From TrEMBL:
Cell membrane keyword on record: yes
Species name: Faecalibacterium butyricigenerans
Protein's name according to its UniProt entry: Arsenic transporter
Sequence similarity: Belongs to the CitM (TC 2.A.11) transporter family.
Major localization class: membrane
Pfam families in alphabetical order: CitMHS
Statement: the UniProt record of this protein carries the keyword Transmembrane: yes
InterPro entries per the UniProt record, alphabetical: Arsenical_pump_ArsB (IPR000802), Cit_transptr-like_dom (IPR004680), Diverse_Ion_Transporter (IPR051475)
């Protein structure tokens, strides 16, 4: 087990140190554990690795990436932003509404894609009003990070949780007779909106925006809405006993997302009488994230086979004892602190089996249901990224847009918004989760 732990820590550090090569580092780690299994060091085979890969998650992510690209190309997000801003009285309200829009979109669309959709509108408004676009785009980024945890398809970490815990789209709203994480995220969003309103309290310049953007195609919007609707419907399908139908059942969410994406791409190719939309959509997919997740599934299974996950669970249990509230607070605090500096995707992927293990050790070894702790982990890991400029990909994307437009973004500029925003969202969101699920 010691060797496995050393190797895992080494590969994790390398993933943090060379961010641009993270997928290849993770793939190298997966290959290392497969080699050790082949040599007989651990009981880890190629068949174990194949079973560890959640192809439903990978298909779901790839399909959503393609559909979101078509949605952005349709210019519907920009149109929505202009429609909303045209009905607000001043800059304070404009920033808050843009943040709300970013949050709403991010509940169903990847956070970085959300920033790419909404940020240009915020940039244009700031220029028109002759105010700094820096706080505007930071507000958009942190709001999109928060709402990523609201639904199954809102963020990579949400998709990871759904795949690991067997949760469906509806479970994020209502699960086992109790409110899901969606409602705690929304309560946190309301609290953080109050923070934004207070931070921009002096920005009372009137706003005058014309609705100029024309939506070029309504079908991508319909496809995105249909994806969400079918994911909900698929969650109610009865599980077949076996065979091909059971295989299709295990891949149902991924097949829904990928099927609608392919339909949208095929339609775009037919309309343009060329394969250009296919090439553009293929290039828009985030292959690095897909390869990273594929590799992490195998790497973490190898680590689990070596006994590291069980040891980590025992360590958390020794720190928290049999007190659920102590474990919950420990998970939320650790996730917020760590996710401020490290990417939350490998962190959540590594911690999900640990949380499952420590929940099984609670209550004198009888175990307790892990859902509260899963939601606490996801809440902390999602919100922690808002504490620093490098804590989340959406932050990096927003800062990159600002720098490309000649703006200087200081760390203090980000902290002035990110810290109070995060504190309000964590206290209200995590607190309401405990009230809903406290055991």
């Amino acid at each position: 087990m010691t060797l496995a732990l050393i190797l895992f820590v080494l590969f994790y550090i390398l993933m943090l140190a060379v961010q641009q090569y993270r997928p290849w580092v993770a793939l190298g780690g997966a290959g290392t554990f497969l080699l050790l299994g082949k040599l007989g060091v651990y009981d880890f085979t190629l068949a174990d690795a194949a079973r560890a890969v959640d192809f439903n998650v990978l298909l779901m992510m790839a399909g959503m990436m393609g559909t979101v690209f078509l949605f952005i190309q349709s210019k519907m997000p920009a149109r929505l932003a202009e429609e909303l801003i045209a009905h607000v009285p001043d800059v304070r309200w404009a920033v808050s509404v843009l943040a709300l829009l970013a949050g709403f979109i991010s509940a169903f669309v990847d956070n970085v894609a959300t920033v790419l959709m909404v940020a240009p509108v915020g940039l244009a408004i700031a220029r028109r009003l002759r105010i700094s676009p820096v706080p505007v785009l930071i507000a958009i980024a942190v709001s999109s990070n928060l709402q990523g945890a609201a639904t199954l398809v809102g963020d990579t970490t949400s998709i990871l949780l759904g795949g690991f815990a067997g949760m469906n789209f509806f479970d994020f709203f209502w699960m086992e007779g109790r409110p899901g994480i969606f409602w705690s995220v929304e309560l946190g969003a309301l609290a953080s909106l109050g923070v934004l309103f207070w931070l921009f309290r002096d920005q009372r310049q009137p706003v005058h925006v014309e609705v100029e953007t024309k939506v070029e195609d309504d079908v991508p919007t319909a496809l995105l809405l249909l994806t969400v609707g079918l994911l909900i419907a698929a969650s109610f399908l009865p599980e077949p006993s076996g065979g091909v139908l059971h295989l299709l059942y295990t891949l149902r969410s991924g097949l829904v997302c990928m099927g609608l994406c392919l339909f949208g791409v095929a339609r775009a190719c037919w309309r343009s009488r060329s394969l250009t939309p296919l090439g553009e959509t293929a290039r828009a997919l985030d292959y690095d994230t897909l390869l990273l997740l594929f590799s992490l599934f195998i790497l973490l299974e190898g680590v689990s086979k070596a006994g590291v996950i069980d040891a980590a669970a025992r360590m958390f249990h020794s720190a928290a004892g049999d007190e659920p509230l102590r474990l919950y607070l420990l998970l939320v605090a650790a996730s917020v602190g760590l996710s401020a500096f490290i990417d939350n995707i490998p962190y959540v992927a590594a911690m999900l089996p640990v949380v499952q293990g420590v929940a099984a050790l609670m209550n004198g070894g009888a175990g307790i249901e892990p859902e509260l702790f899963y939601f606490g982990l996801l809440t902390g890991a999602t919100l922690g990224g808002n504490l620093t400029p490098i804590g989340a990909s959406a932050n990096i994307a927003a800062i990159g847009i600002l720098r490309k437009n000649g703006e200087c973004v200081r760390t203090s500029d980000f902290l002035r918004i990110g810290v109070p925003f995060t504190l309000a969202a964590v206290l209200v969101g995590a607190g309401s989760l405990w009230l809903f699920w406290g055991v």
